[in-house]
Amino acid sequence: MLQPCLFLGQGKVEILNQTVLGYSPSPYLYSGYMHIESRSPTSFIRVGLRTAINNNACIISDGASIDIGNDCLIGYNFHVYDTDFHGVEPNKRACPSPAQHVRIGDNSFIGANVTILKGVKIGKNCTIAANAVVTRSFPDNVIIAGNPAKVIKELVEYN
């Protein structure tokens, strides 16, 4: 772990071998921290083998799970949530919203300032461009960009 990391909550967090939290040299190394919160007893956060997460990541599970695959590269200011935290309708804002699982496939490359929202499943070998807001699921082997994110190119698998 290269950047300070705050672990909070009643749930479980599993970070597998050879995973790197924080990166030097990179922005925010000494001016921020990583926030990993598995809020409720049923929450589960898993970060796979050999995955590298750059500085200032925020990963919050509130009752479902967040599963980041093996061999992923993730840029700084990455945010991923399995909940909306509050209802979106004015009369339901004080009520918690239901959590939905998030899955990021193996060998995905996620640029800086990306946000992934609840219920999203990202296929393996995907690239998500910087500043994307991912609100829906995507298949394997695509490049994703925009707000809201969409497929901008399919990748060809090379052997």
Give the fraction of residues assigned to helices: under 10%
**Which percent range describes the beta-strand content?**
35-45%
Mean pLDDT: 93
Q: What is the CATH superfamily?
A: Hexapeptide repeat proteins
How is the biggest beta sheet arranged?
7 strands, mixed
How many DSSP-defined strands? 18
Can you tell me the CATH architecture? 3 Solenoid
Instruction: Provide the gyration radius in Å.
Output: 15 Å
Q: Please state the overall shape, judged from the principal axes of the Cα atoms.
A: globular
Output the number of helix runs.
0
> The CATH topology, please?
UDP N-Acetylglucosamine Acyltransferase, domain 1
Structural class: mainly beta
SSE pattern: EEEEEEEEEEEEEEEEEE
- The first-level CATH class is given as Mainly Beta
How many domains in all? 1
Low-confidence stretches: none
Strand order of the largest sheet: 3-6-9-12-15-17-18
CA distance, first residue to last residue? 33 Å
